[in-house]
Amino acid sequence: MIQSEPKIVFEHPLNEKMRTWLRIEFLFKQLDTHKVFNSDNALLFFHSLSELLEITERNDLRSDLLKELEQQKQKLECWLNVEGVNIALLTSILDRLSMLARELNTNPRLGLELKDNKFISSIRQRLAIPGGCCCFDLPSLHFWLHLPQSERDQQIQNWISCFSSLHDTLTTCMQLIRQSSVFKPYACINNFYHDKSNQAELLRIRIAKSYRIYPQVSGHKSRYAIRFFPFNVDMPNDDRNLEFELACC
Predict the structure, then answer these.
(1) Cα–Cα distances in angstroms (integers) from residue 202 to residues 63, 122, 153, 228, in the given order
(2) Mind listing the pLDDT tens digit for each residue in 194-230?
């Protein structure tokens, strides 16, 4: 595999906690992408907002994130007495983890105050109905979309800020988790690879784009299997060594 050719990174969770975190991370990206909209694509933002509210309502995110922050602090504190370590950088990261923990403790609902917002609730109720957000279904939304852009932007920013502690904490935790392992080269025959995961939570698979394949992963925290499939079903099976890169985080 040529090192300079374009590659795609696929990520797969190995436990329910990581599965939830990846979905929330995805929804935050969707919110950020669709937070500037017009009347024709406004529902993209409200779909993401509704899904984010739904997933935060049914998961104990706060306790899991607090546990993760404490675990990351313990790992980093072990490096404080290691010679050659950038103490200033390490201390700043530890201070940030402590600050995030304090913010979580003072904001236990993680954005759920929007659940009681009548305007958002009315939209959420109609989103499950095909075409259920027409102007005659939601005249309040139709009116809101005709408010000045600056007023709508301010309200959107207020809604998103309700998730600020969740967003900041999750972003920091996922960054530390991803940086806990580096990509290593591997090869497999017949497009299949399996191994032990040693309590990993996240698999990151990097494949050359030119292969035109994608991985499907099955497994859990102690063992996993990866099978690669051609994107086009009419592509011939290739039994040569398939080269890819893998990081178990």
Answers:
(1) 19, 37, 36, 18
(2) 998 888 999 999 999 999 999 999 987 788 999 999 9
**Is the dihedral angle over the CA atoms 214, 218, 224, 227 positive or is it negative?**
negative
Return d(Cα 138, Cα 135) in angstroms, integer: 5
DSSP string, 110-148: TTGGGGG-HHHHHHHHHHTSTTTTSTTT-HHHHHHTTS-
Count of other CB atoms within 10 angstroms of residue 209: 10
d(CA 42, CA 39): 5
Whether 102 and 150 have beta carbons less than 8 Å apart is answered as no
Q: For residue 172, give the H/E element and its range.
A: helix 164-178
- Bridge partners, 219 (sequence order): 224
Residue 3 has which token pair? 């090192």
* Beta carbons within 8 Å of 163's beta carbon, 6+ residues apart: 28, 52, 56, 110, 111
Could you tell me the domains of the chain?
Answer: 7-15+182-248 (2.60.440.10), 16-177 (1.10.3900.10)
Residues 191, 228: Cα–Cα separation, whole Å: 5
Q: What is the pTM of this model?
A: 0.91
Answer for the pair 207, 215: CB distance below 8 angstroms, yes or no: yes
Rounded Cα distance, 152 and 120, in Å = 13
Specify the amino acid at residue 249. Answer: C
Judge whether 69 and 169 are in contact, CB under 8 Å.
yes
Bridge pairing between strands 202-208 and 213-219: unpaired
